[in-house]
Write a structure and sequence with these properties.
Blueprint: H1 6-15, E1 24-30, E2 36-42, H2 44-53, E3 57-60, E4 65-68, E5 77-84, E6 91-97, E7 112-115, E8 118-121, H3 129-132
Parallel strand pairs: 1-6
Antiparallel strand pairs: 1-2, 3-4, 5-6, 7-8
Length: 137
C-alpha cells in the first residue's frame, strides 16, 4: 500500500466511530491467506501513522502510548489495505505479517479453541517470548 495523503487521512478519520475512550477495535488479517492474526485498539494518531507510513501502529491501553507493531520484537505488520465496517466502529487491517503476531510466540493470538472437551491448543509456539523480547521476563 502506498501512503495516504493528509486529505485522504482526514476523510478516513471522519468515517471512524471511535468509542468514548477515543479507540476503535482493529482486527489484523494476513492479506493473502485470510488468517486472523490478532485484535488490538487504534486511536486517531495510530490510524494516521499507519496510513502515513504503511507500517501498522496501535494504541496500547496497558502502556497508554502508541505501539508500533514489531518495534521491539521485529515482528512487523505492513499494511496492505484498511477496511472500515458498515457502522464505522471496527477496522479490518489486511497486513503482511513478518514472523509471529502474538507476544506468546504463536503465529496468531487465536491459538485456543473451545471444543467438546473444553479448551484446546490449536497452534504451537513458533518462537519463545524470551527470543521475541530479549531482556524481558
Amino acid at each position: 500500500m502506498t501512503s495516504v495523503g493528509k486529505t485522504g487521512i482526514k476523510a478516513v478519520l471522519a468515517e471512524i466511530a471511535f468509542n468514548g475512550d477515543g479507540l476503535v477495535p482493529a482486527i489484523a488479517q494476513q492479506h493473502d491467506s485470510g488468517e486472523i492474526l490478532m485484535m488490538a485498539w487504534m486511536d486517531a494518531d495510530a490510524v494516521r501513522e499507519t496510513l502515513e507510513t504503511g507500517r501498522v501502529c496501535y494504541w496500547s491501553r496497558s502502556r497508554g502510548a502508541l505501539w508500533r507493531k514489531g518495534e521491539s520484537s521485529g515482528q512487523v505488520q505492513a499494511l496492505v489495505e484498511m477496511q472500515i465496517d458498515c457502522d464505522g466502529d471496527t477496522l479490518l487491517l489486511k497486513v503482511d505479517q513478518t514472523g509471529v503476531a502474538c507476544h506468546t510466540g504463536t503465529r496468531a493470538c487465536f491459538f485456543r479453541a473451545v471444543r467438546d472437551n473444553g479448551l484446546e491448543i490449536i497452534a504451537e509456539v513458533e518462537i519463545s517470548p524470551g527470543e521475541l523480547y530479549p531482556g524481558k521476563s
